[in-house]
What does this fold into?
Amino acid sequence: MQVMPRAPAADFDAIVVGAGHNGLITAAYLAKAGLRTMLLEARRDVGGTAASEPFAGVTVNVCNCDHLTFRTTPVMAELDLASFGLQYIDIEPAQHHMAWSGGQSWTQYHGVEQTLDSLGRTHPEEVDGYRRYLRAAVPAVNLILAVACEPPSVRTLSRRAVRQRLAGVPTILRWSRRSAADVLRSFFRHDALAGTAAVSGPMVWGISPELPRSGLGALTHAMRHVASVGRPAGGSGMVPTALARAYEHHSGILRVESAVDTILCDGDAVRGVALADGTEITAPVVVSACDPHRTFLEWLRDPPPSARDIVRRWRAIPHPDGYESKVDAVVSTSPRLRAVDAPLGTTTIVAPSLVEIDRAHRLMLDGQVHPTPGLLLNVPSLLDPSMTDPNGVAKDPRTQVVSLEVLYTPYRLRGGWSDTTEPWRWLELLGDLCEPGFLDSIVDWRAMTPDVYEREFHLPAGHATSFAGGPLAAVRNPNPELTRYETAVSGLYLTGAATFPGAGVWGASGRNCAAVVLEHAARR
It folds into this structure.
């Protein structure tokens, strides 16, 4: 898109604050369109929690490595990320599922019939319910993924719905009024189906499945039949690495270890930022890919009159605490689960019942971790050997990387995280599920708990604020800056997980924000 010439008094045409994957995407699109762009990152490395990093001689992912929605957007093709080193490994089967309450595990594939055949061998009584579930859920997922690829509005939602002949609209309307638990109970009886769907939906969102109006969280099983699970070769961090290369290829300037202190305004318009070291950088456009609370309440220190309402609203919005933790372990032998007769390259969900998930949520609010929390387990190095050989130096082929994500682990843990034995207890729980010898095989391990995410990744209270809800929440949101990407301050925009369509390595928010910025620049 052709844009107007920059104002000569400004250092740059646009400043993007925060080099997580959405900030990188916005910056890359702006630079590609010809805007002279500065990307600022407080850490030494780009990527945020989508990054990978070295640990104990191997590569580990900061968060879980399965990418489901990123390749449903045009970002990879439009920014030609393959030419900058991004390649995906397709994960098949898509996921394994098991319940703490026992019974057989089951395996989900991208293909529906293959999944039903598998389910028929382990849970034949659930096959009819799964068919009914997919008839309702798949059209809704198709509509949500389509709507996510452009800035949401009643017009775009209506246009997409008409293209699909309104398929998916009834489900979105009905399920949006119900709790995810109610929806799941209407289709499934076994914890290995209802519980695992709640783990990868409401639990990942940090809410109870019993919460009213959380029903779209029940779409998670269907997501894996519409989109394909994939992992970047070399680790999740290859996405931000390729994005940074694309950004710099288009003459974008990246500045790391540059924490922002203040968003500067001139009248009702933004004029740039001041860094923590006092450096001022000017631009008529500033995009914050960071937490909205920090953006509006810390950085916008002298808000113009046009921003008074937005500052007031965000001051009244409670900031949620972090609730996710991740353990990375280097092991001398790949573990095997007794209940899953398959290698653990594919992610396995270990789920409590819906009742226990709700109890776990209440325990979390009281600073405790449930005795048997929701787990997401995989051994990414089984499908990507480069994870254990990042420098091309041959290692013992038996060495593997274990990734264990644990949900509802409170930021405000009773007694604090520094002296707790909780993370080791999670490994002991995994050891109880595995064939003998798992704990003895651990060579080294680390725990990424909410306090670590706060300290090392600048996430307030260890939590990355995430947009909640689907398309209806997008067009009726009380905080329109989360769905329109523009704010009441002229030239100040938002992107990131807090904005539509939300968390995960998706990238649609970054692309949508760039589209809004470029449209406004073209008008000027």
